[in-house]
C-alpha cells in the first residue's frame, strides 16, 4: 500500500525511519539519486509506451495482493502484467 505514505510528509531519503528503501545514515545507498531517477524513467516509459492487461481475465479487484515477509516485504504472488500493444 504505497499510498499509505501519501500526505504524510514522509520521504525515502533516510530521514524518516518508517520508509528507508535506500537505508539511512553513514551507509545509506550512494546510488539513491540514480536509482530514484531510473525507477521513475523505467516505470513511466513502460506505462507510456505500452497498454497492459492482466492474464486469464483476472480483474484488478481479483488480484491477490497478499504479502510475504522476508528480508524485504514483497508480494506473495508475483505480478503478471501483459503488454498488449504499443501506443
Ligand atoms: C532503486 C534502486 C536502489 C535501491 C532500492 C537501493 C538500496 C540500497 C540499500 C537498502 C542499501 C543498504 C544501505 C544501508 O546499509 O543502510 C544500499 C547500499 C548500496 N547501494 Fe544501493 N540501491 C539502489 C540503487 C543503487 C545504485 C544505482 C547504485 C550504484 C550505481 C547503488 C550502490 C550502492 C552501494 C555501493 C551501496 C553500499 C553503501 C555502503 O555500504 O556504504 N545502489 N542500496
UniProtKB/TrEMBL annotation:
Cofactor(s) required for function per UniProt: heme
Protein name: Cytochrome P450
Protein keywords: Heme, Iron, Metal-binding, Monooxygenase, Oxidoreductase
Binding locations of heme: 29
UniProt key word Cell membrane: no
GO molecular function: heme binding; iron ion binding; monooxygenase activity; oxidoreductase activity, acting on paired donors, with incorporation or reduction of molecular oxygen
InterPro entries documented for this protein: Cyt_P450, Cyt_P450_CS, Cyt_P450_E_grp-I, Cyt_P450_sf
Family statement: Belongs to the cytochrome P450 family.
Keyword rRNA processing on entry: no
Pfam family, one: p450
